[in-house]
Amino acid sequence: MSDTAKILIGLLIPFSGTAIGASMVFLLKNKMNLLLQKLLLGFASGVMIAASVWSLLIPAINMAEKQGFISWVPASVGFIIGMGFLLLLDSVIPHLHKYAENPEGIGSKLEKATMLILAVTLHNIPEGMAVGVVFAGIYTGNASISTAGAFALAIGIALQNIPEGAIISMPLISEGISKKKAFSYGVLSGIVEPIGAIITIILTSLIVPILPYILSFAAGAMIYVVVEELIPDAEQGEHSNIGTIGAALGFVLMMILDVALG
Known about the structure:
single chain; mainly alpha; 77% helix
């Protein structure tokens, strides 16, 4: 199989996870069990934290060292810029977090359902970048990133996209949206992942030396999502330990995938 075919398959894997999750609207009742939501949110947090460390930051440090840079500089700079970038988007794009009463971002007359979709779409951007940048490493022939490791990251993000797809699509039904439309909106929220991945691949292939910075940028953006939304939602209210258990399970699974396959 050619590298191009591998990259195309790899980019579609996380998107398929969102689609599978959105399809839960046809299998579950109008509301998802609260404990299950907490478990899945925690699981997604654990996957993203582990992916940020093993699939993004460690390769960025190793890559920078081979390029003759001070190893921690690109990782630190990229990480902070990635956090800042998501903070900026969070401050500008009108969106509504699942358990929040008031929307964030600039003032808008958008409907609640639309802002719920925008919240998930916003947080799918760094995941698309993360997948794009590791496959860009393969495309540019960088030895610090293996094909197996890139697919491990894609599979890990796909696994955490399943609960995300369900968690965004299910509440739309309570907003009066049909199951078919709720499924479609859930799927569309994930379309930014392959688009973001392709843009990242193009950018990185044009300027190869910035690859360590882009890897750590994606890590910073993903950690922002975890700290800003996923963990607070998973720990809200009673039975917060369920979210913690989910985070542990997600972290260990992603770590195993990356180490075993990478």
